[in-house]
């Protein structure tokens, strides 16, 4: 009769609650962090540090990152750290390119991004880092890269390699990859990465050549001009680098009606017609400005009528209309030609 009574109660009200089920231990553990969320959190940290370090005159940002992960998060993301880094750097590059418009003279203060993913086990003590919870990584960053080999965290093997770690105990995890997808990235170990950092921030540099250059390589190129705003070539071709292959060029803005093989247009309405001219004579270069131009931080006297030619040296930097930076470099081809003439 007693069993019948308890069975009737169970059918009516269900099983009585388990006391252990009410404890915190019964709550479901969150699923490990997803790559998208990890990238987002690192990027948010980057933007916060960018705002802390950047001033009205200088653009500054962290370049070395230590990402402390809960063991379950680390295990879930371990095989894809290289993809995570690529995603992160793409976010950084897009952000910096946008901000660079406010800082046209900006030159990066470091030549690489560095990333270290750290499995933060229970009982680990690191100054400035609290115990790490699942899905809540802690990120520590510095303005300048650190030498990972001097840190006592991470793996013992610290051999610099590209795409694959020498002496790795698990090479199969990283050997079958498409190299082209990770150009510019060095894998220092399975969780340590270095990515090249330069002023283009991942922006492809397309070369626009003079129409009189029949060679596919640098043969015949006298000098090159590099400009973030980009050049507009014939038939609408656009690129960030122009190879000068004739002894005279004239640089104008995007709204100029001028045309011809010697006319080079920069993709900006700030330049006037024939804003500046560059000529080559016997291995030497000269510039004449018909609009506002600064050459190596010095204002160039503007020409009215006849060109007022000023010497233009190798690796010179120009600022056009106060907003558009451009770099001038003499080609290796011409340097070799001049060297041979001096020898003979």
Describe this structure in words.
With 344 residues, this protein is α+β, with helices and mostly antiparallel strands. The chain is built from 6 helices and 17 strands. It has helices at residues 2-13, 35-53, 71-77, 81-100, 172-175, 332-343, and strands spanning 64-69, 112-119, 138-142, 185-189, 192-196, 207-209, 223-232, 238-244, 248-253, 263-266, 276-281, 284-289, 293-295, 298-299, 310-312, 316-320, 324-330. The strands form 2 sheets. Strands 6, 7, 8, 9, 10, 11, 12, 13, 14, 15, 16 and 17 form a 12-stranded mixed β-sheet that branches. Strand 4 (185-189) and strand 5 (192-196) form a beta hairpin. The longest helix is centred in the N-terminal third of the chain and has 20 residues, at 81-100.
């Amino acid at each position: 009769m007693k069993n019948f009574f308890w069975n009737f109660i169970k059918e009516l009200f269900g099983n009585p609650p388990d006391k252990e089920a009410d404890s915190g231990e019964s709550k479901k553990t969150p699923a490990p962090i997803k790559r998208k969320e990890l990238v987002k959190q690192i990027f948010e940290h980057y933007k916060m540090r960018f705002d802390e370090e950047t001033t009205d005159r200088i653009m500054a940002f962290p370049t070395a990152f230590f990402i402390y992960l809960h063991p379950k998060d680390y295990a879930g993301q371990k095989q894809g750290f290289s993809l995570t880094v690529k995603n992160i750097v793409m976010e950084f590059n897009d952000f910096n390119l946008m901000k660079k418009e406010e800082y046209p003279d900006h030159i990066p203060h470091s030549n690489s991004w560095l990333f270290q993913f750290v499995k933060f086990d229970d009982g680990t003590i690191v100054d400035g880092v609290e115990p790490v919870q699942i899905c809540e990584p802690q990120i520590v960053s510095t303005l300048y890269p650190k030498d990972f080999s001097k840190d006592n965290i991470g793996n013992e093997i610290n051999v610099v390699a590209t795409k694959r770690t020498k002496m790795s105990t698990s090479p199969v995890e990283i050997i079958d990859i498409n190299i082209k997808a990770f150009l510019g990235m060095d894998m220092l170990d399975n969780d340590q990465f270095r990515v090249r950092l330069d002023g283009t921030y991942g922006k492809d540099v397309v070369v626009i050549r003079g129409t009189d250059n029949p060679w596919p390589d640098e043969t015949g190129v006298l000098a090159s001009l590099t400009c973030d705003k980009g050049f507009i070539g014939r038939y609408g071709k656009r690129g960030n680098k122009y190879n000068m292959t004739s002894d005279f060029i004239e640089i104008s803005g995007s709204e100029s009606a001028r045309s011809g093989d010697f006319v080079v247009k920069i993709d900006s309405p700030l330049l006037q017609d024939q804003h500046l001219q560059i000529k080559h004579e016997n291995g030497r270069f000269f510039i004449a400005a018909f609009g506002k131009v600064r050459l190596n931080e010095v204002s160039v006297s503007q020409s009215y009528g006849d060109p007022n030619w000023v010497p233009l040296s190798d690796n010179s930097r120009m600022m056009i209309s106060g907003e558009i930076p451009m770099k001038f470099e003499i080609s290796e081809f011409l340097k070799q030609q001049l060297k041979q003439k001096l020898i003979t």
